[in-house]
Amino acid sequence: MSRPPTPAAGIESQAEKVSGSAHPLTVYVPVDARGLALGILATVSLVFALDWTQTFLVPLLLGILFAYTLSPFVAGLQRIRIPRVLATSMVMATVICTVVLGAYSLRGQMQTILAQLPEATSKLSGGLASMRDDPGSNMQKVQSAVGEIEKATSQVASVSPHPNRSPLHVVIDTPGFRLGDFMWARSLGALGFAGQAAMVVFLVFFLLAGGDTFKRKLVRITGPSLSKRKITVAILDDINASIQKYMFMLLITNVLVALLMWIAFRWIGLDNAGAWAVTAGLLHVIPYLGPLAIAAATGMAAYMQFDSLMMALLVSGVSLAIATLIGIFATTWMTGRIARMNAAAVFISLLFWAWLWGVWGMLLGVPIIVILKVVSQHVEQLQPVAELLGE
Q: What are the angstrom distances between the C-alpha of 216 and each of 35, 206, 364, 378?
C-alpha cells in the first residue's frame, strides 16, 4: 500500500522543478513602508539636531574623553588615601602646568615661526607671480586658454535676437576688505575658543570629582530589573576601557610622531625643529588632514630657509612618510587591537563626522564610533550596527 506524498516531499519536488527551469529562485522580502519612512525621517532629524547642537556637544564630548583619560590617575591617588576632590585638583593642576610650561619653553621658536609668516607669504606670492608671468609656463597657457574661452562666450552673448533692444548690464558692487572687521571677527573667534576651553576644563574637573556618581544614577534609571542593570554596567565598563585604551594609543602614537619628526628635522638641519615636532604631534590627532597640514607648513619653512625646492620637497616627504608610517602600522594595529573595528566603516564614519562638524568631527569621530560599537554589541536591536562596524 503506497503512502501519500508528504508536504516536505512535495516542496522538494517543486524546488527541483524550479531549479531545473530557466527562471531563478525569487525571495520575496516584506517591507514595512511606514516603518522605513519613519526611520528615514528620524535619521534626517537626528543629523539636523547634531548639526544644530554642535557648540554644546563638542565641548561635552571633549570633557568626557579627557575625564575618561585622567580617571586612572585620580583613582591611583585615591588608593593612597587622598580625597577625591584633592586628587582631582592635583591631576588637573599637573596637566595644566605641563601644557603651560611646554608652551612657554617653545615660545621662542613659535615666535620665530610667526615672525617669518609675512616673509614666507610674500616670497610665495612672488614665486606664483613669476610662474604666472612666464609666457612658456603651463599656468600662463591655461590662463590664455581661459581668456580665449571667455572672449568667445562674450561675443556669442553680445549677439542679440532683437537689435533694437539694448543689452542689460548688471553691476555688482562688492564691499572692500576692512581690516577692522576682520580683526574684530578673529578676536571674537579667539574669545569663543578660550571660553569653550574653560568650559571643557571645568567639565573635566566636575566629572572627575563626581567619580561614579553618574554611573550609579544611570544604573538606577535603567529600572529595578537585575539583568538590565548588569547590561548597563557592562556597557559603561566597556566604554570606559575602550576610551582609555584609545586615548592611551593616541598619546603613544603622537609622542612617537613628535620624537621621529624632531630627529628627522634636526638631521636635515631645519630651524625650530622642536616647535615643528610638537606641532606635528598635536596635529596628528586629526586624521588625514593634520599630517597634510604639517607637511605643507614644514615644506614652506624649508623653502624659506634653504631657498631650494628640492629641500622643501624633502622635508615635506619626510613628514608625510613618518605620519604615514605611524598611521598605517602603529595606529591601525593598535586601533584594531582595541576596538576590532572595520577599517572601511571607520573611514566612512570619519567622512560623515568631518562633513557634519569639520575638524572637530574628524577629531571626535573615532571615539564616537567606539562608543556606538560598544553600545550596539550589548543591545539586541542594534546588533546589525555592531556587525557593520566589526571586523
A: 35, 16, 26, 18
287 conformational bin, left if phi > 0, alpha if psi -120 to 50, beta if neither: beta
3-state secondary structure (DSSP) of residue 165? coil
* C-alpha distance from residue 194 to each of 18, 187, 188, 190, 324 (Å): 71, 11, 10, 6, 32
d(CA 325, CA 138) in angstroms, rounded, equals 34
Q: What is the pLDDT of residue 123?
A: 63
* 104 compared with 140, residue with greater pLDDT: 104
Give the ranges where 159-225 is alpha helix by DSSP (H).
Answer: 179-210, 213-221
CA distance 246 to 254: 12
List the chain domain ranges. Answer: 53-116+195-211, 226-391
Close Cβ partners of 134 (under 8 Å, ≥ 6 residues apart): 140
pLDDT digits over 285-328, tens only?
A: 777 777 888 888 888 888 888 877 788 888 888 888 888 888 76
DSSP state string for 305-350: HH--HHHHHHHHHHHHHHHHHIIIIIIHHHHHHHH-B-HHHHHHHH
Instruction: Answer yes or no: pTM beyond 0.85.
Output: no
pLDDT value at residue 23: 57
Please check the confidence at residue 180 and state whether its pLDDT lies above 70: no
Residue with cell 611646554: 102
**Range 210-222 average pLDDT:** 76
Q: What are the residues facing 341 on neighbouring strands?
A: 390
Coil vs helix vs strand at 27: coil
More confident residue, 378 or 17: 378
Helix axes 343-357, 332-339, angle to 10 degrees: 100
pLDDT at 235 over 60: yes
3-state secondary structure of 390: strand
The grid coordinates of residue 388 equal 557593520
Question: Under 8 Å CB-to-CB from 319, ≥6 apart: which residues?
Answer: 261, 264, 280, 291, 294, 295, 298, 299
pLDDT for the residue 9: 47
CA distance 209 to 201: 12
Residue type, 301: A
